[in-house]
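SAMPLE LOG
Freezer: B-3
Tube label: C17
Construct: single chain, 146 aa
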Amino acid sequence: MNIPNSIVRIFIMLPNGQIVAQLRDNIPGIASQGMLSTFGGGVDIGESPQQAAVRELEEETSLKSDCKVEFITTFLYVKNNNPEFIQKNHLFLAKVSNFEKIEIQEGVGFVVLRKDVDFEKVNAGEGTQMAWKLLQEYLKSNNLCM
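STRUCTURE (predicted):
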């Protein structure tokens, strides 16, 4: 499996404040097989994290200009506790105005999450759990839905 050095992670916020996450395929060789995850992927050479987030969101959900993509934070994740695989994760929140426009192009589907879900009790990878905690902190500090 090719592990990119820099990735974007995107959660989607619906108009009612609920959060949407991706349900990954169970295909050998992909990260977080069959688990709950963020939308997103690798940042291409010459591309900013913001550009990668917009591109990945469109590729995976068909969402384009009808949503606002906000940068939240960047965090480091050491994959498999191996210091050779330090990955820079850029976390984004995409606010959508129309839930029906989400068309899943990658993964099995999506999951709409309660605002208070505990990701440590969900079948999600460690990086996704870290991203969820950071999202919750961001939402609370900005008085958004949580």
